[in-house]
Amino acid sequence: MITLQQRAIAHFDLDCFFVSVECLHDSQLKGKPLLIGGSSDRAVVAACSYEARRYGIHSAMPMKTALRLCPHAIVRSGDMDRYSEKSREVTSIIADKAPLYEKSSIDEFYLDLSGMDKFFGSLKWTSELRKAIIKESGLPISFGLASNKLVSKVATDEAKPNGQLEIPFGAEKNFLAPMPIEKIPMVGKETAAQLRRRGVETVKILSEVPPSLLEAWMGKNGISLWRKANGIDDSPVVPYYEQKSISTESTFPADTIDMEFLHAELVRMTEKIAFELRQQNKLTGCVTVKIRYSDFETVTKQMTIPYSCSDHVLLEKVKDLFKKLYDRRLLVRLIGVRFSHLVQGNYQINLFDDSQEMISLYQAIDHIKNRFGWDMLLKGTNVVPPDKRKYPAPKKDIMPYYKG
């Protein structure tokens, strides 16, 4: 029987994914400082090449600041359609070959290869998969191979760019020990600052702090930090096909063909589950709209979309689907919206043409919704709070065919 400590977990990460896709599309961009994002003074950097990073540029930096640091940098607006297509291409390659994999973000994957040493050798098999991905997709990719997800992810970061690194079983703690505490996943600036003020600067020192003391300093996260510092992580690889969708639907007290009301409901439902996406730090790659008519016939229509969790992007897709789907002159009994093909990620990555103000707006909206409830801040499209919502009475005459 394979124990958790004997697992073989590979972490794959497409190097500078957005940049690599742009360079694949235009080879003249290779080796040059490249910034992905909007070109206005208020835009932010969504991604940057290694050449640009040498000038101190990093993602989420104002584009204006980045161009001051590197005036000769090339700026490209993001193309989420292209990035999503390449992400799905790599996913397909991995799905065809891996026994068990988890798509943890648009450009990251975990593979559980436990037991494969008996047949092929985990390192040999993983190396061959990496070569296949590079050959078939044209994109550089790195991987780390270790006994758990935490160490394999850190190993991938050390293997970049376009490399691979195996951490043998039993060597996890020694591998992490000399690294600065910021190398531990989920240790952000604030946590790192708190630890450094207490003299904890390396993973080795962090691993030697008594768990009870870390808990006193950091609360329940202190125990998690101690486990990570000691290379302990028993979290499973979650099969990608088991990734759940997020959906909502509404059955009306009275069947209706009031288009203004139906559109308002679509807006309300889309905002509700888009907020849930952001709460879970996820993006959706597929939108489905559902209609049930008064005669109980149920129809659905879906579309694959560039990965997103932004209201204004998803609302456009939902409305377009509804327009194409509603093709009968019948009263509507129920409508629903579902987001599927979920991956980890945040809304900043597809706001290529949006400003810092747009990002700040989403953060402010979600802060208010977190505090007072998702339905306390809605778009002004005839949407009212649930306790005051009045559903339309059924109409006797049938509305002419809906043209949008």
UniProtKB/TrEMBL annotation:
GO cellular component: cytosol
Matching Pfam families: IMS, IMS_C, IMS_HHH
A biological process from GO: DNA-templated DNA replication
Keyword Transferase: yes
Localization of this protein: Cytoplasm
Active site: E108
GO MF entries: damaged DNA binding; DNA-directed DNA polymerase activity; magnesium ion binding
Cofactor binding: number and manner: Binds 2 magnesium ions per subunit.
Domain UmuC: 9-188
Positions with a binding annotation for Mg(2+): D13, D107
Signal peptide: none
Entry EC no(s): 2.7.7.7
Entry-linked InterPro entries: DNA/RNA_pol_sf, DNA_pol_Y-fam_lit_finger_sf, DNA_pol_Y-fam_little_finger, DNA_polymerase-Y, DNApol_IV, PolY_HhH_motif, Rev_trsase/Diguanyl_cyclase, UmuC
Alphabetic keyword roster: Cytoplasm, DNA damage, DNA repair, DNA replication, DNA-binding, DNA-directed DNA polymerase, Magnesium, Metal-binding, Mutator protein, Nucleotidyltransferase, Transferase
Superkingdom of the source species: Bacteria
Cofactor(s) required, per the database record: Mg(2+)
Catalysed reaction equations from the record: DNA(n) + a 2'-deoxyribonucleoside 5'-triphosphate = DNA(n+1) + diphosphate
Site (Substrate discrimination): F18
Chief place where the protein resides: cytoplasm
Function: Poorly processive, error-prone DNA polymerase involved in untargeted mutagenesis. Copies undamaged DNA at stalled replication forks, which arise in vivo from mismatched or misaligned primer ends. These misaligned primers can be extended by PolIV. Exhibits no 3'-5' exonuclease (proofreading) activity. May be involved in translesional synthesis, in conjunction with the beta clamp from PolIII.
PANTHER family: DNA POLYMERASE KAPPA (PTHR11076:SF33), DNA REPAIR POLYMERASE UMUC / TRANSFERASE FAMILY MEMBER (PTHR11076)
Subunit structure: Monomer.
Family: Belongs to the DNA polymerase type-Y family.
Protein name, as recorded: DNA polymerase IV
UniProt organism field: Chitinophaga eiseniae
Annotated gene: dinB
